[in-house]
Amino acid sequence: xxxxxxxxxxxxxxxxxxxxxxxxxxxxxxxxxxxxxxxxxxxxxxxxxxxxxxxxxxxxxxxxxxxxxxxxxxxxxxxxxxxxxxxxxxxxxxxxxxxxxxxxxxxxxxxxxxxxxxxxxxxxxxxxxxxxxxxxxxxxxxxxxxxxxxxxxxxxxxxxxxxxxxxxxxxxxxxxxxxxxxxxxxxxxxxxxxxxxxxxxxxxxxxxxxxxxxxxxxxxxxxxxxxxxxxxxxxxxxxxxxxxxxxxxxxxxxxxxxxxxxxxxxxxxxxxxxxxxxxxxxxxxxxxxxxxxxxxxxx
Length: 299
Known about the structure:
CATH class: Mainly Alpha
Number of helices: 11
CATH superfamily: CDP-alcohol phosphotransferase transmembrane (TM) domain
Oligomer: single chain
CATH architecture: Up-down Bundle
Structural class: mainly alpha
Low-confidence stretches: 1-9
Mean pLDDT: 84
Number of domains: 1
Distance between the termini: 83 Å
Strand content: under 5%
Strand order of the largest sheet: 1-2
CATH topology: Four Helix Bundle (Hemerythrin (Met), subunit A)
């Protein structure tokens, strides 16, 4: 007979002292953490293996745009809205303008890249410019106007994004309404352009009204022609688009403080005349698609 004080599982005077065995519930409970960790580790490995398949070179340029927006917020928080504006411009010229071109050159367009680009554009081209104009207005003692401008700019662009995400507007020649990038950059340029800030005293109210109108134009069904349309643009339109791409880069390196003046002229010009290149029959087709889209959206 083994004594109760002897170690379990050892031979004592010819007898084996039995070890206490864990019950079935205790065994299952001890096994659960091991199973959970193995499932989690397997999921992480599968995710890491699949993620590179959706991420391509074009998305690197989209991330350049995203980083520019984050850095711009940093400068705004430290009271440097003009530097923040320059940072947004750098992201636009060397990130946003290039990601689509790279996607077409490499043939790597996909749904992930399109969604990433759309979300980044919303942040960098709408939210950040809205914060910049609010900061400029607050510093000048017009905090309420700046706050309303920020809320309206972001609000209308967000509604626009939600509507187009809910139901696809399937007319590749035109955008439905003023693109949010245009309204966002005009708002930022109105607050930072040297021509406006140096020569127009009391410009805050007129600029505020302009931002309100441009924000509403995000939602108004105006057929603004896109450079990715189903037909080629007219030669004079191509020339203006090319000039818009090249001139800000040149001015940025030659006379940086005038960069926002260039953006203001070109983007305000597009907001006022971007529907002119659309032909009569194309506008009729646009309205047919708009009626279909708006009906589907209302369901």
